[in-house]
Amino acid sequence: MFIRIKSAALRGIDVVTVEIEVDSTSGLPGFSLVGLPDNAVREARERVISAMRSCGFYGCSTRMTVNMSPADLRKEGASFDLGLAIGMLSATEQVEIMNIENYLFLGELSLDGRLRPVHGVLAVAANLARYSPETIFVVPYENFEEAACVETLKVIAPKTLDECLKRLQEPEMACCRYPECPPVSATQNKTADFSQVYGMATVKRALEISAAGAHNFLLVGSPGSGKTLCARCLPGILPTMRRNESLESTIIHSCAGMFGSCKGLMKSRPFRSPHHTATVASLVGGMKLRPGEASLAHNGVLFLDELPEFQRAALESLRQPLEEGVVRLNRASGSICFPANFVLGAAMNPCPCGYAMDNRRDCRCMPEAIKRYRTKVSGPLLDRIDLQVSVPSVPIDESRQGKIGESSDEIQKRVERACEIQEGRLKEKKIFRNGHQDGKTLKDILFWDNDAENFALKAAEKWRMSHRGYDRMLKVARTIADLRQSVRVERPDLAEAIQYRALETVWMD
Ligand SMILES: [Zn+2]
Question: What is the pTM of this model?
């Protein structure tokens, strides 16, 4: 008997429907699997047959041919086990399932017939809800929460193969959610609060601008001056995620097998802080076609502490996603895109010993060593950093006497308002934050007069800004104007934005 079962595979975060065709004919018992399977899929035969036996069925007693299409797509992992088992049981007429074409199966089997969770369930669920909303999605119990994030989808989530077959044979059960939906509640990540940070007004201001307009930033200062603490406060002032952003980011985490850390659809923007030993593949992705840190930080912040300690190649690999908002990986099997629209944050010391900008301690580095250290951060990368801030080290007695700063909640309210203004201005666009606009859109949203424009052009000339640097400076000025809720970008906004590019000019000479 011939049976066709629907399952799905991931290419990056894109979902491809895979059809598992099982043909059972009389003859010598045998099993052949075709359709570009990898080792894990080829081993499925052993898992599936053991699982079938554990549930009281006989395994492979006929001549069985299994084909997975599309044939040119490499099938990876163990997520086809469940579909394969259902297909083999139906093809050998050991079970009969009505309307089998209405289901899509995903799940790994263990030898005793239990179902194990798989990656990327949310991506498949979102895809089904969009293109094939009538399909009933069958996933392992542990993936239920993930599939149930898409409210409109019909989901069945059994714990074992046996339970799965029972559910499928009760037609009235097949059309509702099983089990009943548990409440999914994502919690906001608790982070450090800006009220714990004494002084540092310029740094706080720069981070507020970064949060409001999605601008990249670099903090330069002596060890212990509070750069990292300030950066860790940043998640607390980021604007709340819009629904589509939340779904996108959660799907990326789901494909990386990290749905567990999201606890439902993500509510707070991701803040990723990889260690400086990170490789190119772990930053931009590619290992087993999984998303990297840059994609996990999509719609949030990628923070690189100790920037010059990162491998040069790893840093350079971020240039393309910083410009385009996606990571493109070229593989023999074709190219894959991962969304990677993140804000790059970084922190570093001004010199190898760390005290070059400190007026309370002497720097012992040779000028050559300082130069070498700083050139580890290349010009093109620095050019893409809009807010370059030196963090002054403040004497303890002075800083502790200062009054307690604003709390993160208060700052976030301003950020949120600035975001609403940006969103209102570009209603029809999915990407609305100033930092992500292209040059063409930028021209239409500045609303400046001749005086302001001349001022900006003169400054660009004086500071020898690149075209990119100039555009980026204008975007920052737009955000500064949004923070004070002004329609027009004016001279003081530009002056403040220009001052955030000062480091580049000093360093590159
Ligand atoms: Zn030094």
Answer: 0.88
